[in-house]
Amino acid sequence: GIADATQGFLVRWASDAVTLLSRTTTWVHAGSLPGTFFVDHAGRSVEVVVAQACSGADSLLGAAILLPLLLTIWKGPAVRRSALAALALAGALVLNWLRLLILVAAVHFLGGNVTFEVIHPFLGFALFALLGLILSALTRPLGLYPSSLPPSLPLVLPGKRRTAVAGALAAGLFTMLWPLFTTPLGNAGNPLSVPYTELSRLIPPLPGFVRSVAYQADESSILGPHSATLAFLYRTASGANALAEVWSTPNPAALASYGFRDCLLYHGDQIIATQSFSLPSGLPAVAYAVAMAPATVGGTRPVYVDVEWNSVVKTPEGLRYLRWSVAAFPQSPTLWPPSIRLASPARALSGLQRLSVPPSDGKWPAYLEATKTLLQQFSGSIYASLTAKDGSAAVPVG
Predict the structure, then answer these.
(1) What pTM was estimated for this model as a whole?
(2) Contact 306/326 with Cβ under 8 angstroms?
């Protein structure tokens, strides 16, 4: 629809708006990937990613939906009514850019928690309402006037044809909106229920792998109280290995302010390419190719693949917000168990899923393609095993 057709250049325009701000201030810094920015706050940098959800396509679509209503309510010359329609579409984009700049400024002055938890949820609605007031105020200078209604209207029941058309349109609208009400298991609107609180039980064992603890830490200083990180190393007898790590916190705003790239670049210093895809459960995920610093000056930069996604679980102590990371260096597919090697390939994202993750970017080196595919399937197996382990229906890999 309108959103998909305009998404690409709208994302670039939104990113350009924040880039312009980074060139005129000292507290916003552009990252190495397009759409990635770092905002200074209280002595630390907070990552802000201008993803597809920030493009303004939803605002443009909302304005387009309201246009027939505006043109029906206000009467006048066709040219002036067309001008009102054009102002509505342009105003939706401009106010979306203003929303981005306000959010970036709020991160700098108020911090990520207040911005993402308090300001972000309602700012878009407030600015959209402001657009409606501005358009109403412009009708008089444009010489438009409201439609007049007769003092009374007779009640006429719709005929069979109108009833059938209305029913078909309602069914079509319901079908298009249905994905909004069927969020995947593990999404914030449909958290995965687990009967335990131990983080170690969230990373399940997999057939063909030996699992051992590689790293664990209290992350209260970064993600707030009662936050932690745990990583397991998965190994096979043939020599394949992968690291699976989970960050856990009860504070979703803290997790949002500590972005994917904060985690990735702890081990590497340059993201070469990204690819967004869908886990079998329907959760959106992103695969990254990350280059590490060379061991010696002028030496080769080791590159590894990292797959990241977010999920939410409901424990006896309340909701926990999780960030998953599965990483591995390039390996031969023959070293991996058949259950991973022969799994179905990753699925493409739907239009709604693309709004919640960074867009695919960069060119993947050929020697990383096999490892990327393996890690995508390995990530799907981990999450499918987790849901099956906890009494939910197992999700087939692929």
Answers:
(1) 0.62
(2) yes
Lookup: tokens for 42 = 């209280």
CA distance 360 to 374: 18
DSSP-derived letter for residue 200 is G
**Tens-level pLDDT at each residue, the chain (398 residues):** 444 455 566 777 888 888 898 899 999 988 766 677 889 988 888 878 776 556 565 666 667 677 777 777 888 888 888 898 889 888 888 888 898 899 999 999 998 878 877 888 788 888 888 988 898 889 889 888 887 766 666 777 778 888 898 899 888 877 776 665 667 888 877 888 988 888 888 888 888 999 999 989 888 877 888 899 999 999 999 999 999 999 999 988 778 766 656 555 555 568 889 898 988 888 889 999 988 877 777 778 888 999 999 899 999 988 999 999 999 999 998 899 888 887 777 787 776 666 667 778 888 989 999 999 999 999 988 888 887 744 333 322 22
Rounded (5°) CA angle 179-181-184: 70
Angle between helices 78-110 and 120-138 (to 10 degrees): 150
Which residue from 282, 200, 214, 316 is spatially nearest to 248, judged by alpha carbons? 200
Helix boundaries (H) for the chain? 2-24, 57-73, 78-110, 112-114, 120-138, 160-181, 220-223, 252-257, 260-264, 338-341, 351-354, 369-389
- Residue located via tokens 């597809």: 52
Quote the CA–CA distance of 344 and 373 in Å, as a whole number: 10
